[in-house]
Design goal:
Number of domains: 1
Strand order of the largest sheet: 1-2-3-7-6-5-4
Number of strands: 7
């Protein structure tokens, strides 16, 4: 019996390795979807605008807001600074929303924002739009944000994690 040739072995190895490669999960937009972490906080649903405007100047003329915040609980065995989170639903005047909407290219989000339980009912129903460019420029500087826009309600959903 004749041994397989080197090219045949290489092709067979490539097929075997390709078949055994792990399937990669689709990327998550949720900036707080870190393995081993959970959002902790008081569960208080807040409506005051000043703390949001301080952190997110783009919402300075908001009509209303509902938001919650806290820290991310991780492994107590790992020392280091705590990460904080803010989840918010902010209703903007139509003109301000239109200006924000016109500044970037958007796609429809394939998933709903991962917000704190207290805020879940405030997230608008229907299509939500996303833009990596808006996320990158929204702040806070020491963290990251995912921002979702709702054309139907001229509101934005902000999901932020920061140090």
């Amino acid at each position: 019996m004749r041994a397989p040739s080197i090219p045949v072995l290489l092709v067979a190895s490539a097929i075997l390795l390709t078949g055994c490669a792990a399937q990669e999960a689709p990327p998550s937009r949720s900036v707080s979807a870190q393995e081993g972490t959970a959002k902790t906080g008081t569960g208080e649903l807040r409506t005051d605008l000043a703390p949001l405007v301080d952190r997110y100047p783009a919402v300075a003329d908001a009509e209303s807001a509902a938001w919650s915040s806290g820290t991310l609980a991780g492994d107590d065995r790992v020392p280091g600074p705590s990460s904080h989170w803010i989840d918010a639903v902010v209703v903007l005047p139509q003109a301000s929303y239109d200006e924000l909407r016109a500044a970037h290219e958007y796609t429809e989000s394939a998933q709903r924002p991962s917000v704190a339980d207290a805020l879940a009912a405030s997230v608008p129903d229907g299509a939500l739009l996303v833009s990596d460019e808006l996320d990158d420029g929204f702040g806070p500087l020491e963290g990251s944000s995912d921002v979702y826009l709702s054309d139907a309600t001229h509101s934005i959903v902000i999901v932020s994690v920061f140090e």
